[in-house]
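Title: Request for sanity check on Alanine--glyoxylate aminotransferase prediction

Description:
We are preparing a figure and want to confirm that the structure record we downloaded matches what your pipeline produces today. Could someone re-run it with the sequence below and paste the raw structure tokens into this thread? We only need the token string, no images.
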Amino acid sequence: MATSQLCIPPPQGLLQPLVLPERLLLGPGPSNIPPRILAASGQQILGHMHLEVLQVMDEIKAGIQYAFQTQNQLTLAISGTGHCAMEAALLNLLEHGDTVLVAVNGIWGQRAADIARRLGMLGTAGQHRWGFPGGNHLSLCFMQGLARHKPSVLFITHGESSTGVLQPLEGLGDLCHRHGCLLLVDAVASLGGAPIFMDQQEIDVLYSGSQKVLNSPPGSAPISFSERAREKMLRRKMKPPSFYLDMGWLANYWGCDGEPRRYHHTAPINSFFSLREGLAMLAELGLENSWERHRANCAQLCQGLCDLGLELFVKEEKARLPTITAVRVPEGYDWKEITAFLMDNHAIEIAGGLGPSMGKVLRIGLMGCNSTSGNVNRLLHALQDALKRCHRSRL
């Protein structure tokens, strides 16, 4: 037998069976996946240009149009997470000479500003910052920046998952259009859990993610462009700086341009199967029923947290994001100890703060199939146990 030339042996961990715990994911995402969606992801793979897969893509497109409440033809799912959709929106809309105004009311505004800055589209005058901490939504008074800076695009987050704030959008699209500006909205944390009407609210670009209310694995991101936004992209002088996220290519692959579909990339087929089922479950439940379910369970959670003596980060009820609730870390506690206790003793995940809310809050997610009265009661019971066991005076 010939002597092996291998210098690195097989990893021992890979020679063992894969064993994973079962946990109730009540953090800001991902959410638990229902059996129906798990089964869809376990279907045998097909080719990315097979007619059956193209049919699934068409059904996804229709499901996104329903979830977004839009008739936009340029509607599809990007092969990537919500971050990928954020980057795709910015790099397709903006080119040399454009300016973006970013409303920063948490980490997602910060991320959008970072991407825009990397693209060379954001100067110091192109960014509006919200004074943190606040627990309030942004007032439209900052929109005087539209007249002052004359941006091509305004970015704003509808559901700010780092703070649990729901941003009102009424009148914002009309205001942007009167200033010759496109409105770009991040709805990753809010889609399906809070009302949003893309066409009625005159939103030009809207995107979300698969792993929140849609209860699908991370890795596909619904996105839609208005006719205004599509026309701006068609007027570009230079191609977008990314081939992978070039909306011209993606629009063709998704059958949005009326031309024969051409190969662009090998799509995550099984992720699309899952996303299709997530959108189907939302359609079967009905948007209005989904919105009401999330509102009611969030209200039950908030009342229960107050009954435990905890302080909600967002004071105003109508400013609370129904999918993710932020509660202040109580004095005398370490948020890491609380989250670890819940994970170790109750198999429940909640999260600490993120970005500007780091160390200040605990974040609790109730999204899609996880948004139930039973899960609220289970979480409150576990939190009560944690508050008894994790106070520093006991250490």
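Thanks, this matches our download. The first strand starts at residue 24 and ends at 25.
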